[in-house]
């Protein structure tokens, strides 16, 4: 099985689009989100699901999703809908689909089941086996406890996603405001959850994605919550409204200053470790000492900046002797 090609694509903004709503499916194509996911789960009423599967197939095949990672969120394995969601969508639009998002994942076996079903459909339909990736949503205590095994359950896994709304319900958190701190707790109530997801993602070379912020008119609030996840190292966040897209793209891209600095470190370290630069393992860049660890940190920032299409505004100059 091949490694999914989309694993490293930017996913700063992951736009949720109800699969039963042609107007939203039309509009989503024109928004600058890195990823869209067409939803058959909680944004799609049970009675609307059978038709929505076909609507999604049509929009995947006929829409213009250029530049976006195309994902469909199916229903979770505890429902009666999952297999039909996967069979209808993948048989109907497999070549125009990048990933299936599996919500409320509780254990590695649920990922393996989806992997096996995808493989059967790919073989039957003559599609490339293993190309379609899996995004696993962690939305309850069982899922969080098993997150590392989930991250390792299939080479198709590309992202681990935090689903705060379902998660808050699952652990009886005393708040109805998704993503905001519950009143009465003086620290960050999400820190442990986000860090645990991030560790599983990083240990297995996957992307970590934060879930939705439901107060769609409060862009400052969105920025603050997104900024917390970005500061920890998350790669992106869900967006539910056009007004959140630019904010997510900005928050999950490096600042121009950091991007320039990262590129400078890479060039400087390249030079100082070379024959001409004196084969040094550590060196000074202005007032800053840089070494191999600085290079690794710079690679992260520069990788995000390059993926976001940023251009540098300064260049490294070899210091005069
Ligand atoms: C998303 O699915 C959530 O539950 O927050
Ligand atoms: Mg959910």
UniProtKB/TrEMBL annotation:
Residues 12-242 form the HpcH/HpaI aldolase/citrate lyase domain. This is Citrate (Pro-3S)-lyase. Keywords: Lyase, Magnesium, Metal-binding. GO terms for molecular function: lyase activity; magnesium ion binding. The keyword Zinc-finger does not apply. Gene3D superfamilies: Phosphoenolpyruvate-binding domains (3.20.20.60). Substrate binds at residues 73, 139. GO terms for biological process: oxaloacetate metabolic process. Mg(2+) binds at residues 139, 166. PANTHER family: CITRATE LYASE SUBUNIT BETA, LYASE BETA SUBUNIT, PUTATIVE (AFU_ORTHOLOGUE AFUA_4G13030)-RELATED. Its cofactor is Mg(2+). It comes from the Bacteria. It comes from Streptomyces longwoodensis. It holds the Pfam family HpcH_HpaI.
């Amino acid at each position: 099985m091949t490694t999914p090609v989309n694993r490293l694509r930017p996913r700063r903004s992951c736009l949720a689009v109800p699969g039963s709503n042609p107007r939203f499916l039309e509009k989503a194509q024109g928004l600058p989100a890195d990823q869209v996911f067409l939803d058959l789960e909680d944004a799609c009423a049970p009675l609307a699901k059978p038709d929505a599967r076909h609507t999604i197939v049509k929009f995947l095949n006929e829409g213009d999703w250029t530049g976006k990672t195309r994902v469909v969120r199916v229903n979770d394995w505890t429902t009666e809908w999952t297999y039909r969601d996967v069979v209808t969508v993948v048989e109907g639009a497999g070549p125009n689909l990048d990933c299936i998002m599996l919500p409320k994942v509780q254990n590695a076996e649920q990922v393996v089941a989806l992997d096996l079903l995808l493989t059967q459909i790919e073989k039957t339909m003559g599609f490339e086996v293993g190309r379609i990736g899996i995004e696993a949503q962690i939305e309850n205590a069982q899922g969080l406890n098993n997150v590392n095994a989930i991250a390792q359950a299939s080479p198709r896994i590309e992202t681990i996603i935090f689903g705060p709304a379902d998660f808050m319900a699952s652990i009886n958190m005393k708040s109805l405001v998704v993503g905001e701190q519950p009143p009465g707790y003086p620290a960050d109530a999400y820190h442990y959850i986000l860090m645990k997801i991030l560790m599983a993602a990083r240990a297995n070379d996957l992307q970590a994605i934060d879930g939705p912020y439901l107060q769609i008119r409060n862009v400052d609030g969105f920025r603050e919550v997104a900024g917390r996840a970005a500061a920890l190292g998350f790669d992106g966040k869900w967006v539910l409204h056009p007004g959140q897209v630019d904010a997510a793209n900005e928050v999950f891209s490096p600042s121009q200053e950091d991007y320039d600095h990262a590129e400078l470190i890479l060039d400087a370290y390249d030079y100082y470790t070379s024959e001409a630069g004196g084969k040094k393992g550590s060196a000074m860049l202005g007032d800053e000492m840089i070494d191999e660890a600085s290079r690794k940190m710079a690679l992260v920032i520069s990788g995000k900046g390059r993926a976001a299409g940023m251009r540098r505004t300064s260049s490294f100059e070899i210091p005069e002797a």
